[in-house]
């Protein structure tokens, strides 16, 4: 408010002073160019003087030159004043745009140094208030602001807007320009000389960019975390930037070495041997062959199909020369929370990243890197939003055959949806899991235990990274709605099943299948008649 009053009072005074100055110079110019009165006539030579003509011409030429120089000087001064007025007006407009009334800072026009210091203090306070250096306590799971993830080509978004596309090339120009600016600024920061090393520095380009995540807290600013390739295979560069509703500020520039970071994948299981065989094919290719820094812990409930599961595990161990696995058998009723908790506490080695997983999950080697990069002991836990696959029989029903599993894993609105209501797949360091108290072991069966753990992290000072990821998929499987359910429970179960079967449009095509076939039949008949 103080700034706006000063701006309103100052600008009219400045304009008034300039107008008075211009009027004064115009009056001076008129007086200088007006012919003199009789009492102030020019001292011209006498008519009978032999030099009358030459002297008169010389005086006129001299006075004309003086007037011409005076006019040029006045024009130059007027142009300078106009330029200064325009520059000052633009400066004041920019200041008004940058420092709106809502900012609780004092901008003293008579002390620009103090105003600049106040502005910098405010911007840095925005960084402190946002979840940049540490997490903040949140009341519910709905209070967490999720990240969006992006690469050079695509943005993977939860807020799909009118397009309803879970992934897309940025359509809106402001979003496209924003991400390009951030990547370019990060590359410039990486290429800036540190002044310490004498070796020739590596030149980074946008092609070294791996992936980034960002989120906007509407009352603070936008946080960006960008990952670039490092100097070795398992080394990365991470740049953290923050836009506090103004210029982007570099928050952190650090080396991240993940060469020795082991991930312990914990899978609770009961029966489902065929699903486990499919899971181990994915685990072997992505975890063992491509990544190599991985351990598998299987917590098995009961004895039915146990030997078959152990045989699958042992065969994979022999064929892939893989020894980093643990098999734990529990003679009790299945409980996902109990299985994950037992598997996490069974580990006796150094602090390790835990990835809580299910057998109907498909992950890539890139996801395992994201799991490492978004966890930090005592600082961050990772809750990725996975992409849930629709029923392939419905999606590809009009095809001659259903594509292979790898060909089905495409992120499009016709093939699946972001499972933003699920919190079961998560990465965190074992120390954080133990310190937070682990799972609630009173919860039996499936469901509930994941939300309970998620809320524990939200209520702590740890930062929860919640973002859709392109390398984690929930594979479709038939959902059983048991006859023992009440009519209301059965209805809810069927609604959930429908949501997982296909998109709204695809289900609509099934509902109106008879009408569509009737229309096609009529078209064929009419074409035969013509």
UniProtKB/TrEMBL annotation:
Coiled-coil annotation reads 64-98
EC number(s) on file: 2.4.1.-
Its predominant location is Golgi
One MF term in the entry's GO annotations: metal ion binding
Q: Which residues cross the membrane?
A: 7-32
Q: Which family does it belong to?
A: Belongs to the chondroitin N-acetylgalactosaminyltransferase family.
The UniProt catalytic activity note for this protein reads: 3-O-(beta-D-GlcA-(1->3)-beta-D-Gal-(1->3)-beta-D-Gal-(1->4)-beta-D-Xyl)-L-seryl-[protein] + UDP-N-acetyl-alpha-D-galactosamine = 3-O-(beta-D-GalNAc-(1->4)-beta-D-GlcA-(1->3)-beta-D-Gal-(1->3)-beta-D-Gal-(1->4)-beta-D-Xyl)-L-seryl-[protein] + UDP + H(+)
Q: Which domain of life is it from?
A: Eukaryota
Where found in the cell? Golgi apparatus, Golgi stack membrane
Name of the molecule in the record: Hexosyltransferase
Q: Which GO terms describe its cellular component?
A: Golgi cisterna membrane
* PANTHER family per record: CHONDROITIN SULFATE N-ACETYLGALACTOSAMINYLTRANSFERASE 1 (PTHR12369:SF19), CHONDROITIN SYNTHASE (PTHR12369)
| Enzyme class (EC, first level) | transferase
What processes does the entry annotate via GO biological process terms?
chondroitin sulfate proteoglycan biosynthetic process
User: By which gene is this protein encoded?
Assistant: Csgalnact1
